[in-house]
């Protein structure tokens, strides 16, 4: 059972299925084509990442550089949009502007990992201009960056914990003194970190006691999905969108 909704972003019956980078298993991560495939498969929550180009354009892209997944090269922050737009993921698909994604998929809710500080203000400005506050949850490994986002936007912005907040919640679940911030609406965490379990009954119970949902990334195995759902997690992020859909259908919680 999911925790009570603290923000319209989380207004969803049952556990949330997130398409991680749109469903990265196909090798076309963070592309319009892959996002469309996830939406057509029934996904209404999509995880992606944002970077800002040198001239302030916000792109949906994971890495700081184009090199790993495109036929282009160079740091996105050092390149103008006019150059980034010509890069092709897997040699085939263009790098999308995040604004284009918001407009193309008006029913989708986006979980955004803000990968670098220069992307933060352009993201908040875009959300405000399109009045998309109910459709966005902002996260980052940097707790300080998420705190800045929350301070700039206020309670209309849904945020998840950064690494420091997750650590505080983990300590609290063990009965140790910790006071992670209360403005977050979710703890988005790996199942384990460096071989140390993160998600267990105590962690889920501690999160729910603070009114937080627990979303686990990146889970691609059906047995692990079932185990996590049995623990009571509120969402799963996956590269294998067909697998997660099948698991949730089998449990009667898809939709």
Automatic annotation (TrEMBL):
Species annotation: Streptomyces hyderabadensis
InterPro entries listed in its UniProt record: GP_PDE_dom, PLC-like_Pdiesterase_TIM-brl
SUPFAM superfamilies: PLC-like phosphodiesterases
Cross-referenced CDD domains: GDPD_cytoplasmic_ScUgpQ2_like (cd08561)
Protein's name according to its UniProt entry: Glycerophosphodiester phosphodiesterase
Domain GP-PDE: 15-248
């Amino acid at each position: 059972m999911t925790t009570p909704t603290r923000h319209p972003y989380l207004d969803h019956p049952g556990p949330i299925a997130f398409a991680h980078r749109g469903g990265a298993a196909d090798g076309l991560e963070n592309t319009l084509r892959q996002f469309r495939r996830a939406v057509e498969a029934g996904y209404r929550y999509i995880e992606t990442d944002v970077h800002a180009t040198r001239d302030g354009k916000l792109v949906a892209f994971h890495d700081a550089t184009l090199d790993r997944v495109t036929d282009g090269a160079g740091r996105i922050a050092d390149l103008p949009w006019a150059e980034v737009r010509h890069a092709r993921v897997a040699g085939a698909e263009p790098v999308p502007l995040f604004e284009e994604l918001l407009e193309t998929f008006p029913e989708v809710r986006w979980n955004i990992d803000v990968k670098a500080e220069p992307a933060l203000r352009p993201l908040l400005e875009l959300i405000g201009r399109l009045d998309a506050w109910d459709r966005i949850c902002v996260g980052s490994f940097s707790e300080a960056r998420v705190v800045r986002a929350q301070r700039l936007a206020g309670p209309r912005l849904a945020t998840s914990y950064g690494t420091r907040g997750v650590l505080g919640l983990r300590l609290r679940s063990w009965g140790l003194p910790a006071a992670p911030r209360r403005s977050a609406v979710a703890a988005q965490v790996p199942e384990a970190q460096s071989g140390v379990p993160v998600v267990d009954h105590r962690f889920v119970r501690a999160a729910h006691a603070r009114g937080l949902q627990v979303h686990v990334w990146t889970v691609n195995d059906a047995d692990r999905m079932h185990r996590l759902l049995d623990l009571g997690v509120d969402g799963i992020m996956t590269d294998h969108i067909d697998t997660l859909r099948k698991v949730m259908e089998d449990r009667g919680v898809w939709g």
